[in-house]
# Entry
Amino acid sequence: MSKYVQLAGERFRYHPYWDLRSLLDVLSDPLEVYAGWSAFGMEITPELMQERMDNYLLKLLENV
# Structure
């Protein structure tokens, strides 16, 4: 459980709309890999990002 959820208590109500909205915002532009990731030893390709976004979308749709 995130700290935000702990602090918000009963006032917080999760709704998948906001996760879907965020994903659509990211996908509205061509995927670009942040060049700084390689400085941290992370080899992230546009194909890997696409695969992760696809998996994330499928997971979100399971919750709708």
Remarks:
- Residues 14-62 form one domain.
- The chain has one domain: 14-62.
- The helical segments are 3-8, 16-27, 46-62.
- The mean pLDDT is 87.
